[in-house]
Amino acid sequence: MAPRCVADLPSQFVFYWSAQGHLSDLMHQFEATLASYQPLWNALADVDQHTWVLEPDVPTYSAIHRRIVLGPCASVQIVLDLRHPTSVPECRFLGADQTFALLRNFHFYMLHYFILFRDDCSSLVCNLENLLGISFPSPTNSKKEDFSLECGICYSYRLEDEIPDKACDDARCGQPFHVSCLYEWMRSLPSCQQSFNTIFGECPLCSKPLTIKVPTKT
């Protein structure tokens, strides 16, 4: 009977086992699998060392995503390609829409050139900075506390598995909120309106117009 293997890896550990199999054969296959993931883990270690990572709090070997600080109330979540970890990752910008308007445009403009001219010897962080046209805040020039801002409603940073990732679009305010807190706040407003899965309300601090998507967990 084949042994049951559980491993903290980015994907399921698949191995070959025969009736004459030995645990040493299984170990060799596992070591080869670990070696195949090493470029991925090296790229993630580069991100962990040279940027401020908001999520995950404690990275595991199976986690191939990172949420990286871009600035106050602004971050980008990247998901790496298992086979090509230093190539273009999937990017999702989180924060005030106004903050990311130009950055998103630059990202889409540069994406084509990034694929064509990417230097395979460059680090993932260097490639990302070239792609986005920015320099990431890092442990060498900033403090993580400067970017871990509390929710303007519940006055906490982490709410179960949620962090404040919706910010007021007014540049003079920019206060971040948990989406779930903002959802409950807007529902209490007589002036709040909803169209399909979008809610139209106002910022609890500055009263400027603010829209959110209905949380999947309500």
From TrEMBL:
Origin: domain of life: Eukaryota
UniProt-recorded Gene Ontology molecular function terms: ubiquitin protein ligase activity; zinc ion binding
The protein, known as: RING-type domain-containing protein
Keywords, alphabetical: Metal-binding, Zinc, Zinc-finger
Domain (RING-type) ranges: 151-207
Pfam families linked: FANCL_C, FANCL_d3
Organism in which the protein naturally occurs: Pomacea canaliculata
GO terms under biological process: interstrand cross-link repair; protein monoubiquitination
Gene Ontology cellular component list: Fanconi anaemia nuclear complex
Entry-linked PROSITE patterns: ZF_RING_2
Alphabetized SMART domains for the sequence: FANCL_C (SM01197)
PANTHER family: E3 UBIQUITIN-PROTEIN LIGASE FANCL (PTHR13206:SF0), UBIQUITIN LIGASE PROTEIN PHF9 FANCONI ANEMIA GROUP L PROTEIN (PTHR13206)
